Amino acid sequence: MRTKKRTSWRSKLSAQDIVPAHLAVIMDGNGRWAKQRGLPRSEGHKAGSETAKRILDACHARGIRHLTLYTFSRENWSRPKDEVSFLFDLLQSFIKRELGKLVEKSVQLRVLGELEELPFATRQALRLAINKTRGGQSMILNLALNYSGRDEILRACRRLMTDGVSPEEITEEAFSQRLYTAGQPDPDLIIRTSGELRLSNYLLFQAAYSEFYFTDKLWPDFDEAELDIALADYASRQRRFGSTSEQVGTKE
Hints:
Blueprint: H1 9-12, E1 22-26, H2 30-36, H3 41-61, E2 66-73, H4 81-104, E3 107-112, H5 120-132, E4 139-147, H6 149-162, H7 172-176, E5 189-192, E6 211-214, H8 224-235, H9 245-250
Parallel strand pairs: 1-2, 1-5, 2-4, 3-4, 5-6
């Protein structure tokens, strides 16, 4: 749902556990942001990179333990080659620039997607950052890179077969342990910017019971105030997971 009422998230949150343990974001609208200003798309991506930095810091400050950013989908390979090349150069610069802060704040970096298919220099920068932040305990930052939800599901199925798991032994837990997000909670809240109302092949298995927040703001314009609105909206919802509202209301 879209929420227009501007309420401080702190006025809504009475307990730390109301903050989503896992927030996932579809960062959409960089190109449109640039077009509206008569700028090349690359300037929109640069602005979006700065927004990602600010939102990462804001989520860390708010105690969100898992943050997943939809950074580059498998479908994005179809974009113009110069744009794809620029995106990976921008990602490398972002990782190199922010690595020290990630280590300082004890943020662990992970990649959701097929790392081996990325450009060599990008792989090297990511591997270095993953190794240096491996011990991070305060937050896990997932970058969905070269990612496809359908492909992730297919790969998990193949891993089950390779591991010799019989049909009778296949459970949700066994399947989940073969996803990129193994060992992490499913996203509690998924935010999508730019006014689009779709998942775009993002965390398809994991999003079964996720709450959604859609905003018309383009990603470079998404700020802490809008994040707080999304968090306040999430905090006001009753998550039933198949139960009735009365059942949920009586649970302690």
